[in-house]
Amino acid sequence: MNKIVKGGVIQASNVIAPTEDTSKMSKKEIKKEIEKIKKAMMEKHEKLTEEAAELGVQVLCYQELFYVPYFAAEHHKRWYDAAEPIPGPTTDEVSKWAKKHSMVIVVPIYEYVMDGVFYNTAAVIDADGKLLGITRKMHIPYVHPGFYEKYYFKPGNTDYPVFQTAYAKVALYICYDRHFPEGARMLGLHGAEIMFNPSATTAGVSRYLWELEQPAHAVANGYFVGAINRVGTEEPWNTGRFYGSSYFCSPRGKIIAQGSEDKDEVVVADLNMEEIYEIRNAWAFYRDRRPETYGDLTRLLP
After folding, report:
1. What's the CA gap between 187 and 159, in Å, rounded?
2. Which of 12, 44, 75, 129 has its CA 20 to 30 A from that of 106?
3. What pTM value is reported for the model?
4. 61, 84, 111, 137: which is the annotated catalytic residue?
């Protein structure tokens, strides 16, 4: 009998724009504004999570840094105040939602470890509300204009974990990570059945890659991929538009559900776990790979 898991991803626009010029604001006022932004986004996602539950979603993922705007578009230390520990206020609250709906929820947030040490992280919460663990973004870009992530995030140190949830084996590969096939393969080798890629991606040079790279990962590794992107324009990003188009693709590399380019949306797909078994046996990529010949991948520098 087919084992169907109903997957969901949420794409959403930012609710409250941060003040562009903070020169006349006190630190207390700046921190209060950030808390207001987070609260508004939490309220939005609580409603969207309710919608996902009504649609029968069992495994749900939010977008990268879901509770704030994509702040790495600027250099501003105010955003350090958006970071929080895991477990912490956000994961504690989302754990309640997960338990209420018997839903696995992936929660990408800005993680505080200690003063001066922050990560771009996704927490995995099981259907009983238990925090299973975290994945930290491994590859950190610094690309002009607008992706100044090395100012905010330390490179991840969690390697490539896969989490056995109530419904499926779930893995995370966060935004820029998707450009690196090595990690995507590691997730497959570790047993991933659903790989989520929560992102903040704008129209431009990467648009054509959005529906190319991740289906390729799905085919090469025989798993489902849920790709999530923001929608709309927001401060402090002033040079582009987040184009949504969140989707699920199958282990055959086919996009089986996709969102719009310009509106808040819960994208839902039926994921047939039997398809993973069929594809992996049909192509046998894991059987035929030759890891003993790949040594130069780790020995050679570019």
Report:
1. 9
2. 75
3. 0.96
4. 137
**pLDDT for residue 203:** 86
Give me 82's structure tokens.
């958006």
- 252 phi, psi to nearest 5 deg: -85, 0
- Among residues 61, 111, 175, 234, which one is catalytic? 175
In the residue annotation, 64 being an active-site residue is answered as: yes
Q: Which residue has the higher pLDDT, 262 or 145?
A: 262
Count the residues in the chain: 302
What residues have CB less than 8 Å from 180, skipping those under 6 apart? Answer: 138, 139
Q: Which of 33, 38, 64, 84 is catalytic?
A: 64
Is residue 249 annotated as part of the catalytic site, yes or no? no
Average pLDDT value for residue range 266-288: 96
E-strand spans in 103-254?
104-114, 117-125, 131-136, 142-143, 147-148, 162-164, 169-172, 194-198, 224-228, 231-232, 242-243, 247-249
Query: Which domains does the chain possess?
Result: 4-299 (3.60.110.10)
**pLDDT tens figures, 152-182:** 999 999 999 999 999 999 999 999 999 999 9
Helix, coil or strand: residue 271: strand
